[in-house]
Design brief:
The protein is α/β, with parallel strands linked by helices. The protein has two domains: about 130 residues, Rossmann fold (3-Layer(aba) Sandwich); about 80 residues, Orthogonal Bundle (Arc Repressor Mutant, subunit A), CATH 1.10.10. Helix content is about 45%, strand content about 15%. It has a five-stranded parallel β-sheet with strand order 2-1-3-4-5, with helices on both faces. A two-stranded antiparallel sheet has the order 6-7. Helix 3 packs parallel to helix 4, helix 6 packs across helix 10 and helix 8 packs across helix 9. The longest helix has 15 residues. It is globular and about 50 Å long. The chain starts with 7 loop residues before the first strand and ends with a helix.
């Protein structure tokens, strides 16, 4: 770890003390990650998120009292908390995945992942370059898109975008689609296919730093918290 780079601050929220201890040991062995707090349920996680100022919260789903999904909703909605939430659960259930995305989680990882995958996931989420675990990404995105063919809350039907059109479907509640450039549209479509920055760069034959700039612009124009939110938006609106 660079002497000038602060460690990634992590809060562990899990009702099993042994699980928290294991995660702590794994994450702190990385050198660039520091566990700054622990919580045994969602209510404590919310309080510790405010007091401990973590960069990432590793959040279990099933916990007594306030569960991980509800805690995630409250944390994401709280302007005083800047932490990204990484859901880490034993249960490979579609309803948890969908609810986690709706709640604003920045990532989803199963507890059967290896130590190196947990460390990598925390780093990815901390960087804002968040996506779902590889083993569930495409399945979740496909199912999530299919389950939202209409958006009842907004009253907007999905409008499929022609494959050769650079414009997003104009289905945002506030009016038309964001004013994306043609390149940003290409990046968003590839992002929605669960491609990483490196894969997008190779596909478009541009530098990875350039991809990061385009992704940042897309997120800003969408008002999206992270890549997961942008992927969900694209699929919900028939963009892919």
């Amino acid at each position: 770890m660079s002497g000038t780079t602060p460690p990634i601050r992590v809060l562990l929220a899990d009702d099993h003390a042994v699980m928290r201890a294991g995660f702590r040991m794994i994450l702190e062995s990385a050198g660039d990650i520091r566990v700054v707090g622990e919580a045994e349920n969602g209510a404590v996680a919310i309080a510790r998120a405010r007091s401990d100022n973590p960069d990432v919260i590793c959040m279990d789903v099933q916990m007594p009292g306030v569960d991980g999904l509800e805690a995630t909703r409250r944390i994401v909605a709280d302007p005083a908390i800047s932490a990204a939430v990484l859901i880490v659960t034993t249960f490979d259930r579609d309803d948890y995945l969908f609810q986690a995305l709706d709640a604003g989680a920045s990532g989803f990882l199963l507890k059967n992942a290896g130590p190196e995958e947990l460390i990598a996931a925390v780093r990815v989420v901390a960087s804002g370059d968040a996506l779902l675990a590889p083993e569930v990404t495409r399945r979740v995105i496909a199912r999530f898109a299919g389950s939202h063919e209409t958006d009842g809350a907004a009253g907007a039907a999905v409008v499929p975008a022609p494959s050769d059109s650079p414009a997003l479907p104009a289905v945002q509640p506030g009016g038309g689609a964001p004013p994306f450039t043609e390149r940003e549209v290409e990046v968003l479509r590839l992002l929605a296919q669960a491609l990483s920055n490196a894969e997008i760069a190779a596909h478009l034959v541009i530098g990875e730093a350039t991809v990061k700039t385009h992704v940042s612009n897309v997120l800003q124009k969408l008002g999206a918290r992270d890549r997961v939110a942008a992927v969900v938006w694209a699929h919900r609106n028939g963009f892919v």
